[in-house]
Design a protein that fits this description.
Elements lengths: L1 H17 L4 H9 L87 E12 L5 E15 L2 E15 L1 H10 L10 E20 L5 E22 L2 E2 L5 E2 L2 E21 L3 E15 L8 H12 L32 H10 L3 E16 L1
Helix pairs in contact: 4-5
Length: about 375
Amino acid sequence: MRTIFLLAALTFATQSLAAPLPTLTTTLLAQAPKPSTSSDDDEDEPPPSTTPTPTDNKGTTPPPASTTTPPPATTTTPAATPAPVGSDDQMKLVNGAPLFNPNVGVHIVEQKRFSDSGRFEVTLYPVSLQVNGKFTQHFGTMGSVVYHLQENFAFMVTGGGNWFNSESSLNGELVDKARVEAQAASSLLWTWGVLGGVEVTPFYGKFAFFEGTLAQFSFVLNGGAGIGSTRHQLKPESARPDGSISPATYGDTGYRFNAGLGAGFRLQLGNRFAFRLEVRDVVYTARVERVNGCNREDLSAMDMALRGGKPVTSVNVGSGCRVDTFDGTDPDTGLKRSNDVPLALGLVKNPSSDVLNNVGLYAGISFIF
């Protein structure tokens, strides 16, 4: 009987090795506790292998399955979380840079928005006034044309006239109260002038003009030379018997060499317009040798003719002497123009020399193209 049970067990074991069980069943059998034998005489059966292997017909026990060591676990570093994007105000671009972002430090030097190189600038100074008048007063209108050869260098032509030019009240008081007056050279009046020269811009900058407007300013220096016309007062302003005012009379004293120096600020708004505020000093020589083109000899001959009861036109004078300016009646004063002959002779009889400085304040607006 014992032999029958032993044969049945061997037959079952052989069938198990020939047809392996599913993986789940094999796993359960491998984890199940080993069954105890019913008798010491029974032979120990090896535990079934988790991996089915072929066997020979002799019923030998297959070798145990090899154990594979799993690879060590690797630690993955999480990707860096990007910084949160700022609000619209923080990321607002100001001239190309997010200046409102606290995480951004920007240091820039912005170039001029509008270049002056190769452009013309026409400036009108509606009112130019003399600020250093002692014996004279000047108010006029000036203009200039500037060609910017480079960003900070330009050629300039300036010209204009003083529509009001007269001796100062100080000189009038000296004549009325002390019977003295300034020397002819010191009270010479500048009527008009044209000067050509250069202008340089040593430095420039910018600032915020109101909100959202960027204004550019520059410091300018200019200088030039040219020619101008002068005149001198002959008869001062006086009161008529009826209480009206008799205007002053003037004599032309000829052309003078002019030289000018100036400095000021230029404020540019946009691409086309700019404002200028400058101080310019126009220097000119002042020596009175002729009045209305007539020298001392001409005026002396006319004065002798008047004393003899003859008209000034009866005198032979030089080609440059304008005798007609001393002939006839002045419509403004109602007086004979010949009354100015002795006054003009007094200017040239004792000539004086001086160099006058006409320092003026010029305020104007420019158009750039």
